[in-house]
Amino acid sequence: MSRASRPRGPQALSACGSFASLAHKAATLDALDRALRQTLPQPLRDEVRFAHLRGGRLLFLASTPAWATRLRLLQAQILATARSLDIRAETLGIRVCPLPRVEVEAERARTLSPAAAAHLRAAAATATDPEWKELYGQLAAQAGPDKPAK
Q: Is pLDDT at 147 greater than 60 in this prediction?
């Protein structure tokens, strides 16, 4: 299919191939991204992403024009790395676009309500298996001292 006749924008999932082939392609691109960016200096490594390989052209995304310029200065190194990975790449393309930031949310402390703790204590009291009795008691202790439920 030529570039001009290829549909642009969202496509039906059935037109994209099987899920397994999409997952394989995504995993391959992710591994290539990691391999190519690994050789870059640390501040630059976090500000660019490998996006695509087509027709001997490696396409990278850079978060700002300044990072794109720094990446272009390392073009020979990147192409040499690609060749060492048996990737036939002759040119490097760079597009500037803001990269999505991955925010790692701190794990929230989970608290156990007094009512839930009371139910766990009741389950521990009626459990016949000593292991279950101990586990229920340990879970109920997560709520803190024994407080009467309202």
A: no
What tens digit of pLDDT does each residue of 85-140 get? Answer: 998 899 999 999 987 776 666 666 677 888 888 888 998 899 888 888 888 888 88
Q: Write the DSSP symbol of residue 54.
A: E
For the chain, domains (ranges, CATH) are 18-96 (3.30.300.180), 112-150 (no CATH)
5 Rama sector, left if φ>0, alpha if ψ -120 to 50, beta otherwise: alpha
Number of CB atoms found within 10 A of residue 147's CB = 12
Distance between CA 104 and CA 109 in Å, rounded? 15
First to last CA, the chain: 69
Inter-CA distances, 34 with 40, 46, 52, 58, 123, Å: 10, 11, 13, 14, 50
Kindly tell me if the per-residue pLDDT of 66 is higher than 70: yes
50 near 78, Cβ under 8 Å?
no
